[in-house]
Structure of Nucleoside diphosphate kinase:
Amino acid sequence: MFKTEYTLVLIKPDGIQSHHLGEIITRIERKNYQIAALEMIKASEDQLRRHYSDKVDQSFFPELIHYMQEGPIAGIVVAGTNVVKEIRKMAGATNPGDATVGTIRADFGREWPDGVMRNVVHTSDSVANAQREIQIWFPELNLPK
Ligand SMILES: Nc1ncnc2c1ncn2[C@@H]1O[C@H](COP(=O)(O)OP(=O)(O)OP(=O)(O)O)[C@@H](O)[C@H]1O
């Protein structure tokens, strides 16, 4: 019996500004995953502080908040078997310079001259974190348990 999981993908401002929204959604759909929710969002500082609560002590935290508010982001909830691990694989390494060709970050990532990695997407790293993050960006979404 396969269990449906949910994960959160955020397409960050650089991904939207460089017109990769459609291509990223296409890559997800080509893997046969289901888009369960999709919204363009202007991230608030409160949402970002909750989402990146484990990064508050990092030197790059102020730049990270600034980067995530440079423009709209797209919030996407994706459903499917093993989706957390598979979407994370599709995103590639955190630093686009280290990411494998064919991953989203390698293919669409840019230089990051201002101290924060500009890496196109966020993807949840565990089922538990996905549930926590989906609550932040889609507080009214009721997903099946
Ligand atoms: N050493 C670093 N220098 C600059 N920016 C960083 C660094 N590490 C992480 N970041 C930025 O902070 C974000 C969150 O870092 P994290 O370690 O959670 O990476 P991740 O899980 O691969 O990325 P995300 O949480 O965005 O999916 C990264 O996506 C990147 O934009």
